[in-house]
Design goal:
single chain; about 110 residues; mainly alpha; globular
């Protein structure tokens, strides 16, 4: 089984165990999510993007924002489509990587 794991992935088990080895496990794609144009998003979509950094479920985000869970799902889907991302995980990574820019675009005071 170990041999299968070694041969099936882009890295050997040695690579995975060595944190200093440059092993591509998809990290290059995560770094590319830092480039989408956030101006393509509505204010509400930017609010949802901002909240994605919390790592909470749609249900909890909906409660925090005072909107329906289905609405959060629709906004997340729209964010993924407009920014040409692959997943909610990419949207979350983008939210974290560009937190300050998203924060400023919403006109939020520092620390929020």
């Amino acid at each position: 089984m170990l041999e299968a794991a070694r041969s099936s992935g882009p890295c050997s088990s040695h690579d995975v165990l060595d944190p200093f080895h440059d092993c591509d496990l998809g990290a290059s794609h995560v770094m590319n999510v830092a480039t989408p144009d956030l101006s393509r998003l509505t204010r509400r979509e930017r609010e949802v993007l901002h909240m994605l950094a919390l790592g909470e479920s749609n249900r909890l985000l909906a409660r925090r924002m005072g909107i329906a869970e289905r609405t959060v799902k629709a906004h997340v889907s729209s964010i993924i489509t407009k920014l040409e991302l692959r997943s909610r995980g990419d949207a979350t990574a983008l939210s974290i990587l560009r937190h300050a820019e998203v924060h400023r675009s919403l006109g939020l005071p520092n620390g929020q």
